Amino acid sequence: MYVAVKGGERAIENAHAWLAEERRGNMDVAELSIAQIREQLSLAVNRVMAEGSLYDPDLAALAIKQARGDLIEAIFLIRAYRTTLPRFGASEPVDTRIMACDRRISATFKDLPGGQVLGPTFDYTHRLLDFKLAADGEVSKAPSRDAETGTVPHVTEFLNREGLIEEAPHDDTPPPDLTREPLEMPADRALRLQALTRADEGFTLGLAYSTQRGYGRNHAFVGELRIGSVPVEMDIPELGFAVEIGEVILTECETVNQFTGSKTEPPQFTRGYGLVFGQTERKAISMALVDRALRWEELGEDNVGAPAQDAEFVLYHADNIQATGFLEHIKLPHYVDFQSELELVRKLRREAGAQQVQEAAE
Amino acid sequence: MKETVSENNPRKAWMGLLAKAPEGRVAALFDAEISRPAFTWLRAPEIGSAMVRARAGATGAPFNLGEMTITRCALTLETGEVGHSYIQGRRKADAEVAALVDALMQTPMASRMREAVLEPLEAGMATMKAARAAKAAATKVDFFTMTRGED
């Protein structure tokens, strides 16, 4: 419990004024523009959009500037802003088969239709600091090559033809929405995926890693990872048809998991799914691994008690805004609570002391 | 899905194009061609969000992925045509000009709008897309086999 305390207004005002000054930093150094953050810190912008659960690169860049680069604080700002927006509707489910891929790789098939396209990746870089970036911003132009046109089929479609992988059959059940209804257990897969796609990257990564190390191991391969833009279409009631309302960059990861069969399912490959706003590869792979771990029940697997299999544990602790809100509130004044705790400890010590005296006397 | 294929629904195609246009681009093309006609608002530009949905495993049951910002408006020309716009981002000025184009596309001005606004807009966006696709293609791996067993 915390109580309203009066006083401190001036201190708070002055603290905020100093915050603004510290945010700006040394005035001899040029100020960052929103466009600079959007263009040059784009992976930070992507993370803020994904976990803030609002696709708008300029807003995410503004939030990063305001938060002095504290991404969780920036996500908090985006979540707060999002609640002020009227929602005009929900889109048709995006079709990732028609994604204009910047990157598309498979760890399971070398030669696949559409090929292995690396895209602008950190993979195969040597992770050595590049001091040229500290000197000037000149970059050479990236090479081009004639591109094939047409859609790039999903890797799982090839395995489907042999019946070796579980299907994801078409379904049009309206999904639950945790931004409208509180998250409650048991959570179906649609709700779990919504929670995971906006979940904290670090938490999701840690859980995914735990499954690889043996806590609910599910033998994941990255069947496919693709990054690119997809159009978003929404039904417009006043027009009577759906129109494209924009396009979003997404990262999609489909894992192919070894599965020896269970009481209800034949031996086949099973799937985990990750789909996240922006170029957010680590998060999308993590999401797919955790999604697959959480599917133990519907696949008739054993619950081995691994953290990543525990939907309640995962979903109730994955949201960094909920977590930080509760965690950080303990630094706010708890004077009254603490007074009563102090009284309690004093009382216990008095009682313990009295008992010792009595025992000594006996 | 209630699919109205864009080829059969030109309005769907141009509205989609206007929704994805780079900031200020439609206004620049429009204003270079004609002066803005008089209109009245049916719905003044309004910023909001759309919940973007996706499917589990790309093809399965839908789930809520997250929201995106959009701006919409609706207006009526003096000649009675109603223009709508739903565009990406927080761009009230762009929403206004997009709705004007939508309305004028229903008038005898349509072919002029198509030539002056839609075609250059589409060409510009296609060029940007093609440039990106060409860079991606340059990062495609060409495997060559060093040694192989059987054959």
UniProtKB/TrEMBL annotation, chain A:
InterPro entries: PhnI
Presence of the UniProt keyword Lyase in the record: yes
Domain of life: Bacteria
Pfam families for this protein: PhnI
GO molecular function per UniProt: lyase activity
Keywords: Lyase
Name of this chain's protein: Carbon-phosphorus lyase complex subunit PhnI
From TrEMBL, chain B:
One MF term in the entry's GO annotations: lyase activity
One Pfam entry name: PhnG
Keywords: Lyase
Keyword Lyase: yes
Protein name: Phosphonate C-P lyase system protein PhnG
Species of origin: Parasulfitobacter algicola
